[in-house]
Design a protein that fits this description.
There is one protein chain. The protein is of the alpha+beta class. Among the domains are: 181 residues, 2-Layer Sandwich (Ribosomal Protein S5, domain 2); 82 residues, Pdz3 Domain (Roll). The chain has nine helices and 20 strands. A hairpin with a 2-residue loop joins β10 and β11. α4 packs parallel to α6.
């Protein structure tokens, strides 16, 4: 078959699709690959080593919860002897927080990173959780004193709510060494007034100290002798501290025993008071609804702020609570952190808390009850 007329055929040897470049052996890519793998391995080893280096943080998370209408392994959480009590329903659950990590067992960076990803956890500096100038024994002792004060104030608040007369006595349970009160106030001093305000309980003392700039005046009784002393508080952040452990010594007309082993701090006060009121009042306050809440309580029924509110919100949901009572002063930390399925009401007093519970119990319109969103926080 002949070629078509026109240009002469191109010899096969002249046909090329791409220019051809001659290749020569080159050992550089292999060396670079070896170096890259080595760098990657070194980086991984460094990251792994760093992950297990002790961090200067502890993790705050939800701790155990306890129903003040129920029992612990020690028996009924609240037991009243000498007064008529009534059956209860539902739950009034107090909440705690737990810390992971300590100076003796610091957390690794991996553990801190895991907590960072969990909305129920908070990461706080180790020194904030365990101040270097406070021993573990001192911290535990302070927590137990606060728990005892909280229980006593809760009983007082509940009985006063029920219009039952009580007698109160506030004393210095201990003085922190080198604190402003060291050498001025003594263990056993009876505190009568602070800056002219009657010292009805521990919380009234704290409020009086916080409300006054400069020196704080204490009217006390020591060994039966009245005297007046002054202490200039130490200011730490927003707190004014004189360095004493005050204790409540109330006299009640009947026995109210609160059993909650191995838990310290004052934040269960409001829930203790609610449990006592419920037992002393005919009819079940909750009507079977499961509540949780937190807040300090004064003998006069004022509810105060606490720490770890976000962790306690998650602890409430984990325990099955559907309604939550939060101190008004904690609302700034509540907004934006409420887990799904939990309705939160803001309270400033024991009366506020009782009103919220009874409104929900009677299926009344709860839309008028204060919430943290409505508290301007």
């Amino acid at each position: 078959m002949s070629e078509p007329a026109g240009n002469p055929p191109i010899p096969p040897s002249a046909v090329r699709e791409q220019p051809v470049h001659r290749r020569f052996p080159d050992v550089r890519p292999r060396r670079l690959r070896r170096a890259g793998w080595g760098a990657l391995a070194a980086a991984a080893a460094a990251a792994l080593a760093l992950a297990f280096v002790p961090s200067p943080y502890v993790v705050e998370t939800a701790g155990p919860t306890y129903d003040t209408l129920g029992e612990t392994e020690a028996g009924p959480l609240i037991e009243i002897d000498g007064a008529e009590t009534y059956p209860t329903e539902g739950e009034l659950r107090l909440l705690t927080v737990a810390w992971y990590g300590s100076p003796q067992r610091p957390l690794s960076w991996i553990e801190v990173a895991q907590a960072y990803l969990d909305p129920a956890d908070s990461i706080i500096p180790l020194d904030a959780a365990f101040p270097p100038d406070v021993t573990v024994e001192e911290s535990n002792e302070a927590g137990q004193i606060e728990m005892q004060n909280s229980q006593q104030a809760a009983v007082a608040a509940a009985l006063l709510h029920e219009e039952i007369d009580i007698v109160s006595d506030v004393r210095v349970a201990g003085v922190i060494a080198d604190a402003p009160a060291d050498g001025v106030l003594e263990e056993g001093d009876r505190i009568l007034r602070v800056n002219g305000e009657t010292a009805y309980d521990v919380y009234s003392i704290r409020e009086a100290i916080a409300a006054t700039d400069g020196a704080t005046t204490f009217d006390i009784e020591r060994d039966g002798q009245p005297m007046t002393v002054e202490v200039t508080p130490l200011v730490e952040g927003e707190q004014r501290l004189v360095g004493i452990y005050p204790s409540n010594e109330f006299t009640f007309p009947f026995d109210v025993d609160i059993q909650l082993p191995n838990v310290g701090g004052p934040s269960a006060g409001m829930m203790f008071a609610l449990g006592i009121v419920d037992e002393l009042t005919p009819g079940a306050m909750t009507a079977g609804t499961d509540w949780a809440g937190t807040g300090t309580i004064s003998a006069l029924g004022d509810v105060g702020p606490i720490g770890g509110i976000v962790q306690k919100l998650h602890g409430a949901v984990d325990a099955g609570a559907t309604h939550f009572l939060a101190p008004v002063e904690n609302c700034g930390d509540v907004v934006g952190h409420v887990p799904e399925g939990l309705t939160v009401f803001a309270v400033d007093t024991l009366d506020d808390a009782i009103r919220a519970i009874e409104t929900v119990a009677t299926s009344a319109d709860a839309s008028a009850l204060p919430t943290c969103e409505g508290a301007g926080s």
